[in-house]
């Protein structure tokens, strides 16, 4: 690596060399702005009470803010409603993949469990989408340290940097959170290669259907 650059910085440069997809990316960005603005407005009557309940039942902070690797390797702050006990980030920091899912279960608050089942904890991420940090559809955002590890193990992992990370994606709609990192990457790369307005809308529709199904079984 040049001058001690991190893998994220190295792959950020490689990501700029991918084939030109400016037109479809412009269309997807326009949809992100339109839909995230609409979702933010519609979610206000729900978001405010959620924040109050979190503060009353498990204290502050109401929001979880974490560093994630975005498009081109740029690190941004992702925001969600807090669903874990305070200090959980430090206790879970060394876990990844299935181990992270299992360890997280013990840290989820009662309110957090409901928020996760309905995915209402994701509401603040619409602001990340509106800002341009994320897209509604794309590979799920990952912590910088985990990106370093996975990029070293999986040669194709850098290609995730070509697009903005998403609030939802192929891997989440198709297989769920317990899928291996290799399987998730294959779904992410499929989205990157074939991304289009039609696939974007279809993925959002499938996500909405899945969330509705989970909500009905709470």
Structure description:
This protein is mainly alpha-helical and 218 residues long. The protein is 57% helix and 9% strand. The protein has ten helices and four strands, in the order ααββααααβαβααα. The protein has a two-stranded antiparallel ribbon. Strands 3-4 form a two-stranded parallel ribbon. Strand 3 (135-137), helix 7 and strand 4 (166-168) form a beta-alpha-beta unit. Helix 2 (22-58) runs antiparallel to helix 6 (125-131). The longest helix has 37 residues, at 22-58. The model has no long low-confidence stretch (mean pLDDT 83).
Present the secondary structure layout.
Blueprint lengths: L6 H9 L6 H37 L4 E7 L5 E7 L6 H5 L5 H8 L4 H9 L6 H7 L3 E3 L6 H10 L12 E3 L1 H5 L6 H14 L2 H20 L2
Parallel strand pairs: 3-4
Antiparallel strand pairs: 1-2
Helix pairs in contact: 2-6
